[in-house]
């Protein structure tokens, strides 16, 4: 299990005053405005500028859902259509808006289990298949992760996405 990251500086701030971003992108509850293609706007960290923004293909918003560059979304969309839906979004980089795609992870499996009050661990017997690219935990929707298949796919497409071992302690 891995999480994708492009750089420690690649975070976007998400304002979600009514909970619709959380509902749609993390919980998978359809929200009409996103289903109709209405892009929401995220704010990029000051690290970004016009010169370096396009060097990245994956971004981490302050909520647990993936955000991809247009290049990455175009490259991954067909291969991952059964596991993720891409929705248009915008990111404000120092006053300029750029198009990105926020992902709703459709591939949901029971991967983690709670043990006692505080511990969460991988369930016994959990196996990811070669066709599993990205997975959101069914019982703990705050967790999603990329598989080795996703890592290999992104490498073959030469996407600027770096992976690190999954950790619930992030």
Give a description of the structure.
This protein is α+β, with helices and mostly antiparallel strands and 170 residues long. 16% of the residues lie in helices and 35% in strands. It has helices at 20-26, 32-35, 70-76, 148-156; strands at residues 2-5, 11-13, 41-44, 58-61, 67-69, 84-93, 96-105, 108-109, 112-115, 119-122, 134-137, 144-146, 162-165. The strands form four sheets. Strands 2-3-6-7-5-4 form a six-stranded mixed β-barrel. A hairpin with a 5-residue loop joins strand 4 and strand 5 (67-69). The longest helix is centred in the C-terminal third of the chain and has 9 residues, at 148-156. The protein starts with a strand and ends in a 5-residue tail after the last strand. The relative contact order is 0.22. The model has no long low-confidence stretch (mean pLDDT 87).
Number of helices: 4
Query: Helix/strand-derived class?
Result: alpha+beta
- Residue fraction in strands: 25-35%
Largest sheet: 6 strands, mixed, barrel
Q: Give the oligomeric state.
A: single chain
- pLDDT averaged over residues: 87
State the shape.
globular
Q: Percent of residues in helical segments?
A: 10-25%
Number of strands: 13
The Rg value, from CA coordinates, equals 16 Å
* End-to-end distance: 13 Å
The SSE order reads EEHHEEEHEEEEEEEHE
Strand arrangement, major sheet: 2-3-6-7-5-4
Low-confidence parts:
none
């Amino acid at each position: 299990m891995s999480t994708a990251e492009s750089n420690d500086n690649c975070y976007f701030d998400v304002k979600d005053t009514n909970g619709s971003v959380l509902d749609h992108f993390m919980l998978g509850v359809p929200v009409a405005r996103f289903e109709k293609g209405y892009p929401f706007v995220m704010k990029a960290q000051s690290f970004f500028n016009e010169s370096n923004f396009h060097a990245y293909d994956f971004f981490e918003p302050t909520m647990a859902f993936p955000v991809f560059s247009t290049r990455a979304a175009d490259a991954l969309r067909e291969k991952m259509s059964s596991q993720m839906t891409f929705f248009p979004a915008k990111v404000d980089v120092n006053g300029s808006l750029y198009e990105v795609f926020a992902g709703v992870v459709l591939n949901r499996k029971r991967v983690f289990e709670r043990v006692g009050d505080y511990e969460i661990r991988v369930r016994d017997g959990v196996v990811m298949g070669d066709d599993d690219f990205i997975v959101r935990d069914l019982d703990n929707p705050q967790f999603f992760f990329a598989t080795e298949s996703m890592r290999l796919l992104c490498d073959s497409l030469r996407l600027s996405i770096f992976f690190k071992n999954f950790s619930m302690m992030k």
